[in-house]
Amino acid sequence: GNSVTQMEGPVTLSEEAFLTINCTYTATGYPSLFWYVQYPGEGLQLLLKATKADDKGSNKGFEATYRKETTSFHLEKGSVQVSDSAVYFCALSAYYGNNRLAFGKGNQVVVIP
Amino acid sequence: DTGVSQDPRHKITKRGQNVTFRCDPISEHNRLYWYRQTLGQGPEFLTYFQNEAQLEKSRLLSDRFSAERPKGSFSTLEIQRTEQGDSAMYLCATASGNTGELFFGEGSRLTVL
Q1: Cα-flanking dihedrals φ and ψ of residue A112, to 5°?
Q2: Using CB atoms, which residue from B31, B42, B91 is nearest to A105?
Q3: How close B70 gets to chain A, by Cα (Å)?
Q4: By a Cβ cutoff of 8 Å, what residues of chain A touch chain B?
Q5: d(CA B1, CA B103)
Q6: Interchain proximity A101–B43, CB inside 8 Å
Q7: DSSP string covering A55-77, please?
Q8: pLDDT in tens, B75-94
Q9: End-to-end alpha carbon distance in chain B
Q10: How far is it, in rounded angstroms, from Cα A102 to Cα A35?
Q11: Residue in B42, B95, B104 closest to A104 by CB
């Protein structure tokens, strides 16, 4: 079945550091890929998405590129801020237009001033 | 704020009791989803409504679980004869189209003693 794997463990880094969170997926067909973010005390919200291979999603300085050859959708940000501290979830849907999402386990990101 | 609203935010119950959670969606959203999230895991799909019709149910949704959306607006998720393994965060999410973007509520946390 369709699944998403995120790198293990929380991520702690200093303000202005470079952030990468790895995400790989297993899917048949042509899934759409997403990153959702959960800030403390809030519900999950969509951060960015990509619906086909080689698409790059971007928002709030974050980027992720849909790599079909490596089945990956790694999240990156060049210079993090304390306000980026949150839990980040990678997710996929089986195809564009399907809202049923399969989520990874999430990564806690803590940015230290 | 007219986002997705869930009630109660936290429920503590004894094993064997019944509990009901309510979700009020964003008003123009016709698609409604229930997810369950346990500690250290990403959300897992439970069930999906389009308007009042329940179109999909996960095998995670045992016979003790029932969800309704009687008028295509708010939805309820009932768990009968709760077990300790039901302890989790129950998330409601809604969508208005097929973009893959879900709007999540803050969740209802269930603790079964």
Answers
A1: -100, 135
A2: B42
A3: 21
A4: 4, 32, 34, 41-46, 49, 51, 89, 91, 93, 96-106
A5: 13
A6: yes
A7: -EEEETTEEEE-BTTTTB--EEE
A8: 999 999 999 999 999 999 99
A9: 34
A10: 11
A11: B42
- Put simply, the answer to whether A96 touches B100 (Cβ < 8 Å) is yes
Rounded Cα–Cα distance for residues B81 and B41 (Å): 24
SS (H, E, C) chain B: CCCCEEECCEEEECCCCCEEEEEECCCCCCEEEEEEECCCCCCEEEEEEECCEEEEECCCCCCCEEEECCCCCCEEEEECCCCHHHCEEEEEEEECCCCCCCEECCCEEEEEC
Distant-in-sequence, close-in-space partners of A85: CB < 8 Å, separation ≥ 6: A39, A40, A109, A110, A111
* A31-69: pLDDT as tens digits: 999 999 999 988 899 999 999 999 999 999 999 999 999
Burial of B108 (0-12, 13-18, 19+ CB in 10 A): buried
Contacts of B1 (CB under 8 A, 6+ apart): none
The pair of three-digit structure tokens given for residue A69, joined into one six-digit string: 């050859």
Is B99 a residue whose pLDDT tops 90? no
Instruction: With H, G, I as helix, E, B as strand and everything else as coil, classify residue A6.
Output: strand
